[in-house]
Each structure stands twice: as C-alpha cells, then as structure tokens.
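User: two proteins, same treatment. go.

Assistant:
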Amino acid sequence: MRIDLSWADSYHHQPFLSEIFAIAFVRGVEPIDAMHRIGGHSDTLAERTPEDIRDLHEFEHSYPTVVSALSLGEWTVLLQPNSFELVHLVDALSRGTEAFALLRHDYASPSFDHAVDGKITTHFNLNYPDMRGGADRDRLLPLMRAAGFDPDHDEGDYEQVVAKALRLAFRITGVLPTFEQLTEPLPSMHFDSWFARTRPSGSEADPLGQAESIVAELGLGATPGLAGALTAARRGERVVVAPDSELGRHVREWLALQRRASWSLNSARSAMTDAERQHGYRFGWLTTALQGAFRPDLA
C-alpha cells in the first residue's frame, strides 16, 4: 500500500503544521477520553483547526497547550500541531492499553516513544535509531526496518525521518491519518499535563516540604481544597486533582501564570515586568512541587 507522506517533513504555512509537532496513537480509547487522559479541560472543548490552535498561542490567551483528536478504527489519533508535550505523555495514554507518539522537532531531537500499560517499552531518536531505550528496546526492530529505519547504522539519518516514523505507526496500527484529516477542524481541548497520570518531572527530595514553603511564601494557604490536599499528602496518600474541581481551577491559573512568565520573554516581553515574571516563575515551582507531592505512586 503506497501512502503519500511527503507532507511529514515539509513546511506548511496553509494549511498549518509547525516544524515542531507531535502525533500520538492510543488503542481502544475514545477521542474525548484520550484528551482527558493527558489532562484535557472539558470546558475548553471546541472544534479547531491547527491555525486556530496556533492563533491561541498569545499572551492574552496565556499560551495554552492544545490537542485535537480523531478516531481511526480502534485507534484514536491526537495531534499537537505546534508543540511536543504528547511524547512525554504516552505512559498516561497507555494505561490499560497501548500508545505511542512521534515528534517532529527541527531544532532538537525528533523521537518515537511506545508504551504499554503505563510503561515505556521503546524510545528512540528518529535521527539515531541505533540508540534505543525502554523496557523492551528491541520490541519494534522488525517494524522499524520495514518502515525504512536502519537500526544498525550509527552515522545518523536525517532523510524523511518523520515520514519513516509515520510508516512505523502504520505498521503498528494499520491506520494512518491523512494531512487533510489532521488539518481540518477537529474536536480539541486545552490541556495541562499536570493533571495527567504521568511521572512527575521534578526531582526534589522533599517536594511536599517545598510546596508548603512556597504556599506560605505566596500567601495561598486559604486556596479552597489546598490545605486538605497537603494534609492528605503529608499522610502519604495519593491526591488526585481534577481540572474542573475548585482546586483544579486554581492550579490551572497558576500554570497559566507560569506559561505567561516563560513565553512572554519570546513574544511579549513588555507585557510583564521582571518582578511579575519572577513571581510567575514561583508558581511554576509550586505546581512542580505539588505534582511530586500529590503523586507518590508515580514518583
């Protein structure tokens, strides 16, 4: 079967796909549920094109991360048309099933990550398929070779590697979205990976202690639901915060403050003072600490 994948490594202004985009596949999970698995916000559900998602990446919108979804047979396909977080969420997508994600990233490391039931089985850099990791690093070798990768070659491969990754996706799933399907209006949600059941990114030895310290520093002790959550975490309990809960909405606001502080340096430097930006960074440290404190089962 001949599939046209010339679009995968090309540049697209209209219809839009960035030179940084991620596509994930998850088996047996409906599109809405798949978006919820990565921390999707139900109250932001709307049909959007990649151009619509790109246009939301502005200071006044707090630079949201947005994902869209479509169903192909028993698989749901998720698309981030201008970012990369999906490749870090395959563990959350794969719980109870199988999932994988591929990343085009023209300025860093394009990659492919495969997971089964919450565990990364195979990971590799698209440019260096000989350098693999994961619990079963050679699991995909026959399919990788059939898709055009040469896992025995260590010189580096930079030719049409995203197309090869999509051919690998087809070898795994038997389905593949077309460029037209990916760029048409699709159901989409804002999401924050903070709410996903994925391994916390922070490495603090005492994330709970750090969280309590920053809460006191920022005067957030009266935030609804926060004191109870911190107390439960102190008892060693797992704390789950939903995006649409009262505490979850505050966490979303804190995450938005951190994004504004970070992204405004690139696109809206005058929109915040240095003091406001530093204040926003502290909310980033807080949410990272909270994630580590609330999810000891994943740490």
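Protein 2:
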Amino acid sequence: MSTPRNHERRNNDLPVPSADTVVSGTPSAPPRSPRPPRATRPTPPPKQHIGRYRRWYSTLHPSLQLIGLQLWMPLFFIVGFCLCYVFAFHAPHPHDVPVALVGSDPTFVAAVQKALPGEFVFHSYDSLAAAKRDVLAGSMAVAYDPSTNEFLKASAHQFQVANLVPATLTAVLTGIGVATPEVTELAALPAWDEYGTVPMYVMLAWCIGGYMVAMFIGIMGGPLRHRTRMTVIVVGGLVISVITNTLAGPVVGAIHGHFLPLVLIAWGWIVAIGLAVNGLSYFVGRFVAAPAMICFVFLSMPSSGGAYPKWFMPEPFAWLNHVVVGSSMVDMIKHQVYGVGPGPARGLVTMACYAAAGLVLMYFGKKWWERRRIRAIVTGRTTMFQDANTANREFLGRERDAELERHGLTSTATGTLQVVPDDGWEDERASGDVFTGGRDGLENEPLNAGR
C-alpha cells in the first residue's frame, strides 16, 4: 500500500511535534511567527515625456533613424573647417613680428613703422651671437645687422617667415637708399622637407591617433575600469607612435634618423591627448568627437605655427599658440630633427598638464557617469539613439528570419538553424543563367543544402 503524498514532508512544512512537546495530552500548537509588516508599494517613476518630434521620428525606418542621428558630424566638420581653417588661413597678415636689431638704426626703424605700421616690433641687441641664438630658438623672426647690412634667418624653424620677412624689409631698406642687404641662412631645411611642413603633418597624425583611440573607448567602453582604459591608451599610443614614425621616416623618407626619440615623444603626446579625451568622454558620451576635434585638430592646427607662425595668425589663434598641443609638438619635433626652436621643457610641461587634466576628469567623470546611468535605468529614461538602436536591432532580426525562410531555413530560440518541411521550401525566385545565377545571386540548382 502506497503512502499518500500528503504525508510526505516538504521543505516548507513545520517539524512534527514530538512526545516531549505534549502537555496533559494536548499537543502543543506550533509557534506563530510574527506577521511581517505590510510592504508599501513603491512609487513608480514618472513616465518619460516624449515630445511630438521624437514620436514622429520613431516612425521612420530604423536605419534611417540611425543615419539621421549621425548627420551632426558632417555638419560639425563643415562648420569647424570654415570657422577654423578657412578663417585662419584665408589672409595671413603679419602683426607684431619680432625682429632682432643688432645695435641701432633709427632711420630704418622709423621707415618701417611708417610704411608698415603695427607689423614689426624691433628688439635691440648688443651682441650678434645673442641675436643668432634667439633666431634659432624662434623667439625672433629674423635678425638684422645694420653694420654689415645683413639679414640672418632660420628656414628650418619657419620657412614662411624666413622668406617673407627679409623680402618685406628689404623693400623698405632700398626705399630709403640702402643697398640690397645680404641674407645669411643659419639653419637650412633639408632636401626631403623643402617647405618645412613635415613637422606640422606629423603632429597632426599624432593628434588624430591620440584622440581617436580615446574617442572609441569613450563611445563603446563606458563600463570599463580606469586601468583597462588607460592600458588601451598606453598600448595603442605606442603602436600608433611606431607606425607613424615608421611611415614618415623609413617608408616615406620625410624624416631621416631620430627614430627612437620621435617614437618616445609621440608616445607621450598620444597618451596625454588620449587621457584628456578619455576624461571628456564621461561628460559628453557619444558626442566626444566634437570637443576632441575642436581642441586637438580645428584649434590646434592653425595655432600650432606649423603652417604660419603666430605673428601671421588672427586672434584667437595667435593667443592659443601658447596653450594648444600642436604648438608644443611642432616645437619638439623641430628641436629634435633640425636643432631649432625652444628646448623640450615647454613641451614636456604642456604634455604633463594635459595628462593631469585628463586624470582629474576621469576621476570625477566616472562617478558622474555612473550616477547618471543608474538614474536612467531606475527611471527608465532612454535617448533617441538608444531607441533607434533597439528598433534597428529588432528590424534586422526580422529581416534575418525572413531571409532564412526564403532559403528554406528557420532559426530557433537558441540560435540554431532548422530545415523547413519539404513542401514549398524552395525559393521561387531562383532563376537566371549559368553566369549570373538567380536574381538574388542563387544558383539554378534546387536549393537542397542542409536537407
């Protein structure tokens, strides 16, 4: 005879009272647990307000939604190029160009100030050697020695200045009856960099590599830890540094020698830029490309002094020459490769400042981003980009199932494929000749693969 199921003990049954628990023949009642307090129903979060435009936009094709939400980038490029590159380079004009004057020549100075007001500023030097030193360092555009009627220039530091300034001042000198002065080259450009543009474009490659590594980390690596992000930046910076210097040097031949020092300089700058952009990404999310390109491309390029010196650039680019990364990077490249320009101290200080700013932004930005993310999850708030991604993912899933069905296959919940029944599984559109196949690119034989 079987035991009834009701006699079986279950995990939530109370223990069977033993004989010791019976008093005066009356079984003791099981102890009552205190009734838990009634839980208060949580207040539901306020429903997200969806505007009329967003409701209309969600009715578009999911792929069209994603394209529309990314069109801000070409618009941003157009505006950035016009306001920065076109505005800065459309009419470069000299202003406050420093000229080293060995000794004194009041007649020449007065003639220049009258003919070209506000364009040149003369600094008196007692020593020709000191004037040469400052021309090579880049603090003086050119030097002029009235006693020998000679200009001294450094084309390796700034090709445009070395050609424009002596020619302009020579016209003033001949106008006051002075013979055409001699022009002495203190630092000539090598044959593989005829116009002195190599440092500018190498700098641009380093900047773009640094900000793009951090930009993709910010867009797709939000939950990653700080050390993981920094590892990617450091390793990626080393790879980009080696690649760019290999291409610019041994492959293209634009730079001869100095491979290891340039790799180290580029690595430091790429890491500094990457840390700064990584810190910004916590605050601006997927729009991190905008501030990154503004800081490290659109403003840095005209203000770097690579194309024209700050004395030829309009404001604010002339002032930004003191703080942008491009200025320090170009100076470090010129000092290392050509031996001109200021020493590496200014560049190292600027590099450290950008890296420190990035670390500070990372410290506070991570906490701010996590609070914002939790708030969005709890309240159920979404963005238009998230909604478009969700709609596109569902649309692609439906398209995938429809495509499999046309080829006699069907997907299951586990992602495996099954063959549909024999009746009516063959794609009716499979037709064409032996060269082109069917209209959908299928062969003319029966589609019996996998049966």
